[in-house]
Structures are given as C-alpha cells and as structure tokens.
C-alpha cells in the first residue's frame, strides 16, 4: 500500500554523485509507516504488563507514553535494549532470560517476544503502508547510480520489505537478525551503519544516512557519515538537529538529486578513448535487447531485429565473446535474434544458454537458476491470477516468461493504471517467493531472489573465464534493469553504455542515442578486432 502519490515540486538538490556513492535508509518511519505500529505494540505490552504487576515500592507503574517513552527508550533501538531501558526507568530490573523464552515469561526476552507477537498481529490486521515519496526517492537514487541499503534494528525487516514489495530496491539489508549474528552494537552506536557501508564497498564519508529516530541520527553522526538526514514525521526537528542531523526534511519528496552527474559523452565521438582502453585487451560484449538492439515499439512481438543489426551481431560474435542479456523469455529472445554463435540470457539472467567459446572445455553453456525453479509454481499462479483479474482492462498484456511475468501497460488508458497496479501488488503479496520490479511501461513479478542482470553478468564472466586483466567487458542497455549490470561493470572496471535519446542519471559511463549507434559500435569493435 502506498501513502499518497509523490509530488516532486521544489525538491532541493541534496544528493550528488560527486560527493556520495551510497544512501542508507532506516526502515520504520522512513520507508514504511510502521513506526506507529511499533509504538502501539510497545504501549500494549508495557501497559498490560505494568497493570498486572503487583505494586512494589520504588517502582513506577504509570502507563507507557507513546510519544515521550517511545522516543526516549525504544525508538530505533534493538528490541531487548528497549525492554530493558524502559523497565529500568520504571525501577524494574528483570532477568534477561533466553532468546526463545515464550511471551508469557517474565524476562526481557519473554517481554520482547510478546511485543513482537503484538507487532506482527497488528501488521497482519492492517497491512504495511509505504511512504510513496521514500520509494520514489529510492528509485531515483538507484537510477542515478547510487548504491542503497536498508539498516534497521528490526528483526521483522525481511517480512516488512517483502510485504511492502520493496526488497528489490536495495543492494544490502542489515537488520536486527544480522546485527545480532555479527555481534554489532545497535543504534545509537554507529556499528550497524558502518558495517552496511562496508558491505556496499563504500566509506562512511561517501555515504548518506536517512533516519527518523534520534538514536539513528546519533549513530550516523558518530559513524562520521558524509551526510546525515533527519526525517521529521512528527515535530522532532530540533532534537534531530541537536543529535547530529545535517539537514532535516518533513518528507522525502523534498529531497532532490543534484544534476552535477557528468554528462555522458556521445560514444561515437569517444571511439579513440575506447580503443585506448582496448589496447592489449579482448572485448567481451554484453547487450540488452529491447531499446538497445531494437527501438521500443507498441507491441513486444513487433520488436524485430533489423537485418543489418543481425549481421553486425553475427560478425561481432565471430570475433569476441558476446551475450544478449534480456528481460524476455529465453526462447523468445533467441528466436528474435536468431543466431547460434552467441549466448542468450533470458528472464533477466535466470535462464542462460549458448555455445561455450571454449569448446575444448564443454560444448555448451546451460544454467537455470535453481532458486528460480523453486518459484515456478508461484509464477504460474501469478500469471493465471493476473490474466483473470485483468481480462477486462483494455490494452493490458500479460507476458509469461519462464522466470517472470510481465504486465504490459503501454496500451492501457491512464485511468485504468491504478487498477492494474493494485492487482499486481495484491497478487505479489498473496504469493510467497515473488518480488515486484518494473521496466518500460510494464510491471513485473520475478522470483524473490538476489539475482538480476548484474549477477548474471558476473556469472557469465566467471563461467566463460573472462575475469582476467586481459579482458575488457562492455555492457549496453537502455532500461532500469540494466543499471544493475552498469553498477557491476563500474566495480570491475569495464565499460558501461546507456542507450537513451536524452541524458539521464545512470551508473553507465557513456551514452549512445539509439540502436543505430549500437550497430555502429558493433561494427567498429569488430573492425578493431580484425585489425589487431
Ligand atoms: O531486457 P530487455 O531485453 O530490454 O527486455 C525488457 C522488456 O522488453 C520487452 O518489453 C519492452 O519492449 C517492448 C517492445 O519494444 C515494449 O512494448 C514494452 O513496453 C517494453 O517494456 C519485453 O516484452 C519484456 O518481456 C522485457 O522484460
């Protein structure tokens, strides 16, 4: 469920790729409207417990104040610490107990487990609401090439992200379960943020933190993060500033991304640079299909490869390792390209097939991601449900691929879009093991697995023995789903090229304007190789 639509007027440019590489989000209260559910669960827990506890000298049994007590003792902190600090403030010192103490045990763990059961009950009844502006900012950041992580003391993080359909939007999740396993001190100590930055491969000074709790702002400030942003949902501006926030916003729609991102030079004017980088190296080419090798058209079946592009691909594949990594189904993409001297990765890389360029090792390359196979039943049900639910929406097209279901809305009237979105949201929530992603005028359900075009690219480089310093991988793509591959090449020192008519924030190094330019590049690279 989304909390209103993002209104992007007067956003203040705050994030700049020149200064920052990553953005770390707190969960409850920043991304999801769950802070108030936590506050209610805490209140029920403590009010019930204190009212049942026999009056004892030195103890204060007054009711839990869901404003003051919530912020002072529990907000943003690990659950066990929350129980302990609140009770100590009321003069009650309970034994810690064991992590699996049942909820009726009068121990810190027992009460913590009671609170968690109450929280889950409330979520079950009310569902998860996300802040639309937060999700919008997340998407904008990822398009601009920032890495993202969610960092939370909550042990319910995976459940919340899954139910809210947010888990595809982060490179890393660091939650209360992992923090405990790694023995990291919780907020207000900086350890969880610092660990998450490390997992993203980024120094704290090159990362920003978004937090609504004072404990979280203190943690980020103590960790010397490059930018600490407080989100003031309920009149806490002054205290967020006093605890170390550099800036405070009421909502995330007010946050913009600076357009200082280097304008990507048109690649054809930069051929000299590419050939310099290719000196003594073998290129390995990875190409998206729709929007990269063919122009985007109204109906997916009409996206046919031109004869000249097919020839350019065939010739390039004779000279260098070449794979087409597409969101389309594997059989669909291999039939559309129609060449047998290159590798195809379908369903965003869940399904890979092609000749191994080292036939002495093995004739063919074949991979179906096992975790994707586990999701086949859910995908089948999702496709059937969506076909039925959307049968009367004019223009909608449900495309079943082996490892994904795309719901095309290019020909759907604007007034019907909310209905389609709702059907996709509900279908995803009703089935285990699927996550929602997007694309150009489509919604998509995929196996909820940490696998995307970037991971498929890494897999191919490794399987094809292309990881050495003598290889220069190049990836070309036009869509948000290609940004995952651009980010991988950024890390590996390859060349990534966005195909887009107009410049836009991207993790890619360069931009080409249209598939015609891609064809010219293929011919150029093939010629270079021949001359060498
Ligand atoms: O990763 P790609 O090879 O770029 O595939 C992405 C999606 O491409 C197709 O949909 C897109 O192209 C269609 C034809 O131009 C267009 O009508 C649609 O609006 C685009 O989203 C394909 O149908 C999807 O399965 C792919 O995921």
Folded structure, characterized:
This protein has 532 residues and is α/β, with parallel strands linked by helices. It has four domains: 2-34 and 129-257, Rossmann fold (3-Layer(aba) Sandwich), CATH 3.40.50; 35-126, no CATH class; 267-367 and 451-531, Rossmann fold (3-Layer(aba) Sandwich); 372-447, Trehalose-6-phosphate phosphatase related protein, domain 2 (Alpha-Beta Plaits, 2-Layer Sandwich), CATH 3.30.70.1020. Helix content is 39%, strand content 18%. The protein has 19 helices and 22 strands. Strands 15-14-13-12-11-20-21-22 form an eight-stranded mixed β-sheet, sandwiched between helices. The chain has a six-stranded parallel β-sheet with strand order 6-5-3-7-8-9, with helices on both faces. A four-stranded antiparallel β-sheet has the order 16-17-19-18. Helix 1 packs across helix 4 (108-126) and helix 15 packs antiparallel against helix 16 (417-430). The protein is elongated and about 90 Å long. The protein starts with a strand and ends with a helix. The model is unreliable at 2-9 and 260-264 (pLDDT under 50). Bound molecules: the ligand O=P(O)(O)OC[C@H]1O[C@H](O[C@H]2O[C@H](CO)[C@@H](O)[C@H](O)[C@H]2O)[C@H](O)[C@@H](O)[C@@H]1O. Ligand L263DTV3 is lined by residues 288-291, 296-300, 303, 326-328, 399, 406, 408, 410, 439-442, 479, 481.
